[in-house]
């Protein structure tokens, strides 16, 4: 009976020794990593397990993502005061990023230990579903912030809570469907030529994900522009009522709030746009190094999300202080909410 060749543990379905060459060729023995035994000496199943350094980077990112977002999920889950729609959406974002981090760690563990197609499909499906839920949660938070300003008088009604639960059900349902696609047969394991830059996702599959991201980014950009207009209009009305000058602290905090929105959107684009654009124009024949170089920054968005959306929030800060120290500093307890907190 002929022996089956082992499944490559790399994200890209390439030989893990090809990372250093950048072009998919075999690793030169002169790199200082040692001389690898040839296949005519050892059968494939007895070849030494080589760990791709880029996979180690992804696994390390996943560990940091999981630990950071687990803290946010724990704080929101244990604090009954954090049940408003805004905190539910922040919790959804943290949960999605937590699962994405666990998915990266599980993929690394299963790929290098089990080295099977089934494990690869399950872990990649988890990562796709989790990162999709993360992006959708960011859109939901943007929509919630827009509605909280546009419908300020009726925002705290039961209608807002029902709308929030509807958004959560839809975004997690759609994310689950996207994650199940590779598991249910939409993959390139049977036809290597149809693979995208991330195996086992097909070129069509990742194209749909990339185009969806671009559409969501455009919608978020439009909503944040509207938020900026509302914030500036409110600031101008308050200034006229109180005869403020342009140099007053109120205008300073308003400009800071607009700058915060720009940082939020800019960070999101900087992390995800390189991989999105690259995955549209490239395929599995491109050098694996380029895919890793664009994929790793995309994972950093899940590292930054808790800092932007959770740790800056005054109520979550109070809950964190209570969990860690059992008390709340007066500087945190009495800090007034400003437009920079949007």
Describe this structure in words.
The chain is mainly α. Helix content is 66%, strand content 0%. It contains nine helices and no strands. It has helices at 53-78, 85-113, 117-150, 158-183, 203-242, 249-281, 288-310, 314-325, 330-333. Helix 2 packs antiparallel against helix 3 (117-150). The longest helix is centred in the middle third of the chain and has 40 residues, at 203-242. It is globular, with a radius of gyration of 23 Å. Residues 1-7 and 14-47 have low confidence and may be disordered.
**Strand tally, please?**
0
DSSP helix fraction: 55-70%
**How is the biggest beta sheet arranged?**
none
The amount of beta strand, in percent, is under 5%
Count of DSSP helices?
9
Measured distance between first and last alpha carbons:
65 Å
Secondary-structure-derived class: mainly alpha
Average pLDDT value?
A: 78
Q: Catalogue the unreliable spans.
A: 1-7, 14-47
Q: How would you sum up the global shape? A: globular
Following the backbone from N to C, one meets helices and strands in this order, namely HHHHHHHHH
**Computed Rg:** 23 Å
């Amino acid at each position: 009976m002929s022996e089956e060749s082992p499944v490559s543990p790399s994200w890209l379905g390439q030989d893990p020794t090809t990372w250093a060459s950048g072009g998919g060729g075999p690793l030169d023995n002169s790199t200082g990593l040692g001389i690898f035994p040839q296949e005519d000496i050892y059968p494939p199943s007895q070849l030494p397990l080589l760990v791709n350094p880029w996979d180690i980077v992804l696994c390390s990112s996943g560990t940091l993502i999981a630990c950071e977002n687990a803290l946010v999920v724990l704080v929101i889950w244990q604090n009954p005061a954090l049940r408003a729609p805004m905190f539910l959406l922040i919790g959804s974002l943290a949960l999605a990023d937590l699962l994405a981090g666990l998915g990266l760690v599980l993929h690394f563990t299963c790929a290098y230990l089990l080295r099977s197609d089934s494990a690869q499909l399950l872990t990649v499906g988890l990562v796709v579903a989790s990162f999709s839920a993360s992006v959708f949660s960011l859109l939901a938070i943007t929509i919630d912030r827009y509605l909280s300003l546009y419908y300020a008088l009726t925002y705290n009604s039961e209608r807002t809570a029902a709308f929030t639960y509807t958004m959560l059900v839809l975004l997690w349902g759609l994310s689950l469907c996207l994650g199940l696609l590779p598991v249910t047969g939409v993959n390139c394991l049977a036809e290597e030529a149809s693979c995208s830059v991330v195996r086992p996702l097909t070129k069509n599959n990742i194209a749909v994900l990339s185009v969806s991201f671009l559409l969501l980014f455009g919608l978020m950009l439009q909503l944040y522009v509207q938020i900026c207009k509302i914030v500036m209009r409110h600031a101008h009305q308050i200034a006229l009522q109180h005869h403020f000058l342009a140099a007053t602290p109120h205008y300073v905090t308003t400009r800071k709030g607009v700058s915060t929105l720009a940082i939020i959107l800019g960070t999101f684009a900087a992390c995800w746009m390189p991989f999105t654009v690259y995955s549209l124009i490239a395929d599995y024949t491109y050098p694996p190094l380029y895919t890793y170089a664009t994929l790793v920054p995309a994972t950093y968005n899940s590292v930054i999300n808790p800092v932007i959306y959770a740790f800056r929030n005054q109520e979550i800060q109070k809950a964190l202080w209570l969990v860690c120290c059992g008390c709340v500093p007066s500087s945190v307890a009495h800090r007034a909410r400003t437009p920079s907190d949007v």
